UniProtKB/TrEMBL annotation, chain A:
Domain Leucine-binding protein: 29-376
One Pfam assignment: Peripla_BP_6
Positions in coiled-coil regions: none
Keyword Transcription: no
InterPro entries: BCAA_transport (IPR051010), Leu-bd (IPR028081), Peripla_BP_I (IPR028082)
GO annotation (BP), single: amino acid transport
Keywords on record: Amino-acid transport, Signal, Transport
Family note: Belongs to the leucine-binding protein family.
Protein's recorded name: ABC transporter substrate-binding protein
Domain of life: Bacteria
TrEMBL record, chain B:
Name of this chain's protein: Branched-chain amino acid ABC transporter permease
CDD domains in alphabetical order: TM_PBP1_LivH_like (cd06582)
Membrane topology: Multi-pass membrane protein
PANTHER family hit by this protein: ABC TRANSPORTER PERMEASE PROTEIN (PTHR11795:SF450), BRANCHED-CHAIN AMINO ACID TRANSPORT SYSTEM PERMEASE PROTEIN LIVH (PTHR11795)
Annotated localization: Cell membrane
Higher taxonomy: Bacteria, Pseudomonadati, Pseudomonadota, Alphaproteobacteria, Rhodospirillales
Major localization class: membrane
GO molecular function annotations of the record: transmembrane transporter activity
Source organism of this protein record: Azospirillum doebereinerae
Length: 384, 291
């Protein structure tokens, strides 16, 4: 077992090295480690992340690397298991001796890796959503995606703009959904929104009509927010239409991929959700600072993989670019300097928004990074 | 109030019908071979995935379901032939572990063939909800319940009216005696796997528009089906059907009146209670061979 694991690992590393062999020069490589969930239940997040990291490492090397140094990428697949993420993090720090780690597809994987990078003093840029990753701030831990708290804030701001103050929450019984629920409860209190229902469903449930019937019979509810990932929110949306509930339906940024519209079909019409600019690249006004970045990234991604770009792919791109940008500014890969440089990231325009970090903010995104979109005729449309 | 209850009952019966089909599959295999086949959920997955992907590439729906069904039967026979039959002298626990292994293997293969993403299958007759005394249901629910009822009747006729069916029944009652009167017990085992695979695959195809299909869809459905079979009394066909409906309705009522957080727990509390207090299930005969 151990031998097989080792030889698989050797193979993976070998492949990664092989891909670079053509361009490796005398300069010492910048060693970037990555842990993603390329297989397992979170593979729809981790698989595009892995592909993007490999694609861009290749492209950068072909263009001559960073400051003349090639990028050497080591990717491990944690299969969606937090304990594996932890052991791979150890391996990246101790035997691969990487300069910076990008990854942790899920919040669970990230939180398992966090204490290790803190101890090993290696800068770590997570690709996972929950706000707990950067609150409280950990010295060596950063993240690129928007938080669930921001999603809740964006949704409630939109509700207020429509004059709605009573919200029914349906959250998924998963790490993402649970954290989303907590944040929604907290934000609701801050923004003066009354939570009139608080239902949950299992991530693999095939029928949520029982929960939704309760909400339908709740006369106080004025809008419904669903916090979940994957197929669950699509099931909720279908059941919602089946029961003929007429209240406005909000989803979280967790379903901001075309997959959701495809699964929910006609039922998705009229659903509103906060999404990154990447999702609506073509519709962004020309003066939007993100326009150029997201259009370019979409083009490169879709040409390379002939599949639709997802926000998760964008998170990995942002993570890699922030790391490499920091290497340039730090003038090398001294870990302490590199960490400081990441923390000083200012005005970096990525797929998720404009990132300006500080000692207090290791994500650096503001609510402007989210756009409220609505599903119209099977596509996303910006809500003006 | 009444509309609410009716809504829960309708949801429960729809999902319960699927559990019933899965449970029936468990019972058929258990009867023929005394194996609890934990790959039953994967037959459902094969049916769902095959019909979703084939129709997406232009194959007409009935043909797609037939191909999925045939594929699942073939897989069922292969599992029986190359995994279960080879270890037929092993203990029951070993056989169960073998079927769990087979299920993991099948999921892996399915992931390679069909990929990891969710597949969508259009509802057979539109998605306009049917309103009924204040409750509403998807037309697909009628397909699920109707198909399940039809299959259950067909299975009952098969066991009671055909020679092959009777041979399978005889094998379940007394394997040695069946062998002595000239029944090819090995073929009965193969047939039972094929039959349960076909049931699962058709079930998978009719539920796919409601649940979406993906390679792991069989895990939970399989477990709930097992609960249904145990609740009804392992090996008791009508019991498995009743068990499935009870589990489905209990889940829906639990989610509606108690808390949605405990929805899945309902099924497993039921199975624990049954195992503790009614080890032979609601309808199972007081076993003489079981300890």
């Amino acid at each position: 077992m151990r031998n097989r694991l080792l030889s698989t690992m050797a193979g993976v590393v070998g492949l990664a090295l092989g891909g670079l062999a053509g361009t490796v020069s005398a300069a010492e490589p910048i060693k970037i480690g990555a842990i993603v969930s390329a297989t397992g239940p979170a593979s729809f997040l981790g698989d595009p992340e892995k592909k993007v990291l490999e694609l861009y490492a290749d492209r950068i090397n072909q263009a001559g690397g960073v400051d003349g140094r090639p990028v050497q990428l080591t990717v491990y697949d944690d299969g969606g298991a937090a304990d594996k993420a932890a052991s791979f993090t150890k391996r990246l720090i101790e035997s691969d001796k990487v300069d910076v780690i990008v990854g942790g597809t899920t919040t669970a994987a990230t939180m398992a890796a966090a204490p290790l990078v803190e101890r090993g003093e290696v800068p770590f840029i997570s690709l996972a959503g929950a706000v707990v990753i950067v609150e409280p701030v950990r010295k060596w831990v950063f993240k690129t995606p928007h938080t669930d708290r921001m999603a809740a804030e964006k949704v409630m701001d939109d509700m207020k703009a429509r004059g709605l103050t009573k919200l029914a929450l349906v959250s998924e019984d998963s790490g993402f959904g649970k954290s989303g629920r907590e944040q929604t409860l907290a934000v609701a209190k801050e923004r003066g929104i009354e939570l009139v229902a608080d239902e949950t469903y299992g991530a693999k449930d095939t029928d949520v009509t029982a929960q939704l019937t309760k909400i339908r019979n709740n006369a106080a509810a004025q809008a419904v927010l669903v916090f979940g990932l994957g197929q669950g929110p699509a099931v909720v949306t279908k059941n919602y239409r089946q029961l003929g509930i007429a209240l406005p339906l909000y989803q979280s940024h967790g379903v901001a991929s075309k997959e959701f519209i495809r699964l929910a079909g006609g039922a998705a019409e009229g659903v509103r959700l906060p999404a990154a600019g990447l999702v609506v690249a073509a519709q962004l006004p020309a003066e939007d600072p993100q326009k150029k970045v997201v259009t370019e990234f979409t083009k490169v991604y879709e040409e390379a993989f002939s599949s639709e770009v997802s926000t998760f792919a964008g998170h990995a791109y942002d993570g890699l670019m922030i790391a490499l940008d920091a290497v340039k500014r730090a003038g090398g890969t001294d870990k302490a300097k590199l960490r400081d440089a990441i923390e000083q990231t200012k005005g970096y325009v990525g797929t998720g928004g404009t990132v300006t970090m500080s000692a207090k903010d290791h994500m650096g995104l503001t609510l402007d990074a989210f756009h409220m979109v609505e599903v119209k005729q099977g596509d996303w449309a910006l809500v003006k | 109030m009444f509309a609410e209850l009716l809504q829960y009952l309708l949801s429960g019966l729809t999902i319960g019908a699927i559990y019933a089909l899965a449970g029936l599959g468990f019972s058929i295999v258990y009867n023929a071979s005394h194996v609890i086949n934990f790959a039953q959920g994967e037959f459902i997955m094969i049916g769902g995935m095959a019909s979703a992907t084939l129709t997406a590439s232009g194959v007409p729906l009935p043909l797609a379901i037939l191909i999925g069904c045939g594929g699942a039967m073939l897989v069922g026979v292969l599992v029986a032939k190359f995994a279960v039959e080879r270890a037929r002298n092993a203990s029951t626990v070993t056989l169960i572990i073998i079927t769990i292994g087979a299920s993991i293997f099948l999921r892996g293969v399915a992931e390679l063939v069909w990929g990891k993403d969710f597949k969508r299958l259009d509802a057979f007759s539109g998605e306009t909800p049917i309103q009924f005394l204040g409750a509403s249901m998807q037309p697909q629910s009628l397909w699920v319940v109707g198909t399940a009822a039809l299959l259950i009747v067909a299975i009952a006729l098969f066991f009671n009216r055909t020679l092959t069916g009777k041979a399978m029944l005889a094998t379940s009652h007394n394997r040695l005696a069946a062998q002595l009167v000239g029944i090819d017990v090995k073929r009965v085992v193969l047939a039972s796997f094929a039959l349960s695979a076909a049931l699962g695959a058709i079930g998978g195809a009719v539920v796919a528009p409601i649940t979406f299909s993906y390679t792991e869809m069989g895990i939970m459905l399989g477990l709930k089906g097992f609960t249904a079979a145990v609740l009804g009394g392992l090996g008791h066909g009508p019991g498995a059907v009743a068990g499935g409906l009870i589990v489905g309705v209990a889940e829906a009522l639990g989610a509606g009146y108690i808390s949605s957080a405990y929805k899945d727990a309902v099924a497993f509390v039921i199975i624990l209670a049954v195992l503790l207090f009614l080890p032979n299930g609601l309808f199972g005969k007081r076993g003489t061979e079981r300890v």
